[in-house]
Structure formats: structure tokens, C-alpha cells
Amino acid sequence: MNIPEIEFEPVEDIKRFQEKKMKIALDYLKNRSPFYQNLFRKNHIVVERINHLEDLQQIPFTEKKDLQSYNTDFLCVPKEKIIDYITTSGTLGDPVTFAMTDKDLNRLAYNEKISFLCAGVQPGDIVQLMTTLDKRFMAGLAYFLGLRELGAGIIRVGNGIPELQWDTINRIKPNTIMCVPSFIPHIIQYAENHGIDYCNSSVRKAVCIGENLRERDFSPNLLAERIREKWDVVLHATYASTEMATTFAECEYGCGGHHHPELIICEVTDENGNPVPEGIAGELAVTTLGVEGMPLLRFKTGDMVSIHPEKCRCGRTSMRVSPVIGRTNHLIKFKGTTLYPPAIYDVLDNTPCVENYVVEVTSNDTGNDRVIVHIGLRNQEPDDIDKNMKDRFRAKIRVAPEIKIHPAEEIRKINFPDMSRKPVKFIDNRKKTNP
Fold first, then answer.
1. Are 395 and 383 in contact (CB under 8 A)?
2. CA nearest neighbour of 50 among 24, 83, 84
3. C or N terminus of the chain, fewer CB within 10 Å?
4. Could you tell me the domains of the chain?
5. Mind listing the pLDDT tens digit for each residue in 158-216?
6. Type and span of the H or E element at 303
7. Which parts of the chain have pLDDT scores under 70?
8. What pTM, to 2 d.p., does this model score?
9. Helix/strand/coil percentages in the chain, nearest 5
């Protein structure tokens, strides 16, 4: 089934393999990319002297603001070679346009094929895509291309609409669904409300995107536990972004997303840009390999992760990427505690009366972070909901944010605005300071 052999090779061989790929990528950027030609010239970088992965540290990082300010300068091919135009979701600011060639689409299909294989999807499986293929979204298209390449059946339902999801499951009987994990409790709730025997449905596996399913030690987080308590499905987490054009997927052992060495080089760095020790959290920076249209060099993703180099029980020796701990721009400093929004989500996801929520961060009068959790309740409001929720937060994260209760439908409109492709759970209204 074409699982890449390089993922099982000795670590030293993987490094040498990546260094050869890196040289090809640097030469391509030197000859084709206006942005990187200017960066090399301004910083007196001789790419021929970059021979080892460690040498990449001589090159400045590429940041989201570079893509926003000099977007067309990243394009390495004539416009007539562009087949597909996509944009990022805008998680860390204004969306960025990406242009993909036919070769890039083939690479994308290969990436998703081997990622689905890693997650245990087989040729002949039927996969229901609960993700959009429109709205300039890369992921939905990538999943379709990868599953087609793999030889799996595909049902393109799109996101939301639990009624349509269950109608499709009952009609076509997929064994796998692909969705944002926080949507699964909603389809479970719909099934329970409408007498659907979901536990005996055809679905046996969920490949999930966009949200964590595990803690940093790879144990199931509260959302995963909440799903599994209700529905005995196998859950696989994946991690990806438009800029990376590469997916990190869990194997059956669920110990981090597996790295595809032929597609991407990864670095994890501290706030000063220095490499962090293995297993320590830092910001992920990536160098894409084999991208033709808009390749990136040392791109800072904004995602905080850790790298785990130990051989996996599945036999792969390529490194594994931890669940995303948080985003650099989303760091909250609240009442002497530093935390990221996923820690707040975990508490809310494990509270039975909470139907949906939005976490808002603003600045108070002294310029410090103020955290407000807007909650939509599932049923009738429990007694003293404010105290109940604050006790839960203190037990889990040591501090308690402000709690505001709203109709669940009001929160749902915030979670799923018309122009968004991902659920909106975090709103950052802090005052921005000028650099």
C-alpha cells in the first residue's frame, strides 16, 4: 500500500535523506522565489554552504506577516501554471492566499494518502467527509484527493447538519468519518434525540482535525473521553496547516502525529529562535519539501508543540509531533497563571450541562488579560451554575474566569459564522500594542 520506507529507516539515514532534499529545496528557492532571493541577498546567505539541517539556523525565519505583506513574491511559477487558489483560515490574522500547481495537488494527494494509511484507513473503506470542499479550503480538497489516491470510497457531505450526516450514514454505511472532534458530541446528541441507534451504526472510526484529542502525555483528553463514553469508535487525531501542505497523523498507538520526512523539515524553537531539547515545548517551524508553487523556508507556524524522537511501537522511526499545546498569539496571562485556550476547552468539554461555548480574552483597565467564558447550556440551568463552573476551572487550571450564560443558539452563531471554515471557540479582543 506504499507506506514510505523512509519512515522506518535509522534516524541517521533519515537525516541524510532530508539534507539531500533540503539542498534541492534551497537551490529551487534561490533560482525561483523573489522573496527568498531577496532574503538571501539581504542576509548574505550562500545557500551552497547550507549542507546540514543544523545549518538552517543561519537563515532568518519566515513569518505569517511576510506572507501577508509579500504574498505574490513567494510564487515560484508563472501564473498560468496555477491550478488551484486557496486561502488559510486566518487563525493568526488575515487569511493568506496560496497558489497550487498540478504537481502540488499530486503532492497533496500523496501526503493525505500516506496519512490516512497511518491512521488505519484502507483501500475499500468508505469515508464520510464532514468537512467543506468549498470556501477556498485546502483540507477538504486534500482529504478527497488522498482518499481517491488510496482507493477508498468518499462521501462528500460537508460540515454541520446532523440530520444530513445521519441520513447519509444510514443510506451509504461508511465505516469512517472525517470531522472536527467537537462536532461528534453534537451528532451523538442528535441521534439520541431522534432515536437513532448510533452505537450499532456502520461507523467504527473517526479521523479528526482541528482540535486535540490527547493530553501532552498522549492520554485521552476530556473531549476524547466524553466521546468514547458515549460511542465506541476509534479516534485518530491529525495535525496540519495550509502553509505546511503536510499532515501529521496518529497511528493505532496514538502517541503523536508521525512525520513524513520526504515532505517537510521540522524545527522546534524557543522564543529567541533557539532549538529546544527533545520533548520540550516550543514553536514549530517548517521547511516544505517538493512544493512547486509557493514553498516555504523555516516558516513559523505559531503552534506550540514538542518533538518525540523515540521509535514508535508501530515500527516508525521518524519523529512524532505532540498535540498542539496552544498558539503563540493565544497565550493568556491570567491572575498569575500562564495558559493556552485548550486548557479552558478541556474543562468545558467535560461539563455535561455545557452545550457550546466561546472563550473571549480582553484587556482590563490595567492592561492585564481578562478572560470571559460565554456558555450555552444544554438543558435547564443548574443551581448556582457560576459557582459550579468556577469550581471546575479552579480544580483543573487553578484560576476561574468570568462566566456569562447565553442561549445556546446565540453561541452556535458565533461558533459557526458564515465565512468561517472552522469552529470559532476563541476571540482575542486584547488591546494590541505597537512594536
1. no
2. 24
3. C
4. 1-327 (3.40.50.12780), 331-429 (3.30.300.30)
5. 888 899 999 999 999 999 999 988 889 889 999 999 999 999 999 999 999 988 888 88
6. strand 299-305
7. 1, 89-94, 366-367, 380-382, 418-422, 432-435
8. 0.82
9. 35, 25, 40
